[in-house]
Amino acid sequence: MYDAILLVQTNCTPGHEEEFERWYIETHLRDVTALPAFTAATLHRNGEVPLHRDQPAPEAKFGYVAVYEIEGDPNVAAMQLADARSGMALSEYLEAEKWSIVYNRISDRVTGA
Fold it and tell me: How does DSSP classify residue 55?
């Protein structure tokens, strides 16, 4: 089970969603999970779903969020990622602005009955 997650929110150049998603899923997620501390990763697209009955879907600054599962010390994971970053191929459709944060897991996974 993972000890922390790294969330990375990003956008792609409009009109290049297919190429961006292919690169992220087939290349970037695999590059990051090749690092010892990162055990799994998924990419998610904004679903533009209203969360309250009488309100529209909230506007999101970023269209994508990647969730990376970290096993062990997240500081070690961050160092591994920083060291590997220069050797990773980045998509030409990845916009420069992004938002990243690490959250430490504090509970077991809860599922419905």
Answer: S
Partner residues linked to 59 by β-bridges: none
Q: Which tokens go with 62?
A: 């970023």
Both tokens of residue 31? Answer: 């590059």
Give yes or no for a contact between 6 and 70, defined as CB atoms under 8 angstroms apart.
yes
Within 1-107, residue ranges assigned H as helices are 17-23, 29-33, 74-84
In contact, 60 and 76? CB cutoff 8 Å: no
**Res 94: pLDDT:** 95
Q: CA-CA distances (angstroms) from residue 35 to 15, 28, 40, 70?
A: 31, 12, 10, 10
Question: pTM of the predicted model, to two decimals?
Answer: 0.89
